[in-house]
Amino acid sequence: MKMKKRNSENQSLSEVLKEFVDHNKLQGGLDKVSVKDVWYREMGPAIEKYTTAIKLQNETLFVQLSSSVLREELSYGKEKIINMLNRELGKDLIKKLVLR
Fold first, then answer.
1. CB 41 within 8 A of CB 48
2. Distance CA 79, CA 5 (A)
3. Which domains are delineated in the chain?
4. More confident of the two residues 23 and 32
């Protein structure tokens, strides 16, 4: 796990961290954590209470909900939810939302 040495005075901390993440192929794992954080923050405590599992696989977000009524309600706004989550993530990470 040897990284190229660079003149650290010319690199910001964010550049160094990005290089480390890219070099070690960690972005996928960080994206999965970010998606969970954004889901809970944007959907709020009422929906968080009924969310039992969240999994990002490829470009599909799988969300398991313990309430069939809530699942039905959210299914009407899938496109809006995807757009909101992607906006908060700062990139088009989610293409499809599956509510279970």
1. no
2. 44
3. 27-99 (3.30.300.130)
4. 32
